[in-house]
Design brief:
Layout (H helix, E strand, L loop, with lengths): L11 E5 L4 H12 L3 E6 L2 H15 L4 E5 L5 H14 L5 E4 L17 H23 L3 E6 L22 H22 L5 E7 L12 H14 L3 H4 L1 H8 L10 E3 L2 E2 L9 H15 L7
Parallel strand pairs: 1-2, 1-4, 2-3, 4-5, 5-6, 6-7
Antiparallel strand pairs: 7-8
Helix pairs in contact: 1-2, 1-8, 3-4, 4-5, 5-9
This protein binds NADP nicotinamide-adenine-dinucleotide phosphate (NAP).
The site of NADP nicotinamide-adenine-dinucleotide phosphate (NAP) has 29 residues, from α1.
Length: 290
Amino acid sequence: MDTSQGSLAGKVCLVTGATSGIGKVTARELAQRGATVVVVGRSEARSAATVSQIRRQTDNSSVEFLLADLSSQQDVRRLAKEFENRYPRLDVLVNNAGAIMLSRRESVDGIEMTFALNHLAYFLLTNLLLDRLKSSAPARIVNVASNSHERAKLDLDDIQVRGRYWGFGAYARSKLANILFSYELARRLEGTGVTVNALHPGLVGTNFLANNGPFGKLLRMAVVVKGMSVERGARTSIYLASSPDVEKVTGRYYFKEQEVPSSNASYDEDSARRLWRLSAELTGLPAEAQ
Ligand SMILES: NC(=O)c1ccc[n+]([C@@H]2O[C@H](COP(=O)([O-])OP(=O)(O)OC[C@H]3O[C@@H](n4cnc5c(N)ncnc54)[C@H](OP(=O)(O)O)[C@@H]3O)[C@@H](O)[C@H]2O)c1
């Protein structure tokens, strides 16, 4: 792993979904560059184990964890408060936690789980931490999306997918939402010194899909065989979070540390504004939040 991309000493980075896969390597590499790293996990045991592992591997004792089930809005709000109470600044927010649900489930807030976890958690956590990011500017937001968004169209009238549910479809739509959200937020943050970019990590052998019973575990094995290593899969997240090359770049989509175009649908500003309004409504934020 190339760690020559600039020191992050004195910076505070928060990485969600950092107990596994791409998020865990991202958190480790940011710690390796000297940042204070806050690992967000939903299991205390896995979070504590991740923190001790990263501290040991990087010799950086400024790695801590905060707990939240990010599919629960109450937990996201508590997380944001706890973070603000403990850390005076936030230089890098990496929204990474995500999952695919092969059967339809709802969050504790009664929202289709994929949309709740993969999109609304990014939206709510980011908005709640925006003041801290702005006061720490130059600051960065990195949203882990996926190239699966290319197959998606967002049906804002059926966000709950009450009709026929297809897990890969719901996942693809949530990842399109990540990109629409990133571009809209970049427009809203113009002139603040806070950048926001989205990325596709590649097909990566992680724990992804493992939460879906024996069939999910089988699919996961296929991804592990076909996919790239987690170290490689985390590179674009680390690049966007830390490289001086992209310090001022905002509202872009990356793959393999290169800017690439996202789907036509992802550039539709009207959809982005409508998604923003709906997300604000579903999370109880003012529509003009930010
Ligand atoms: N792997 C790929 O090929 C691939 C491709 C494109 C995009 N992505 C994206 O990459 C991101 C990271 O995925 P990954 O491949 O690294 O998968 P992973 O190994 O399954 O890691 C997912 C992380 O999200 C956390 N998480 C899941 N549900 C959560 C919840 N309700 N509350 C809080 N945290 C939760 C998991 O925590 P636990 O440890 O507690 O389960 C874990 O730390 C996701 O956004 C995914 O969509 C992955």
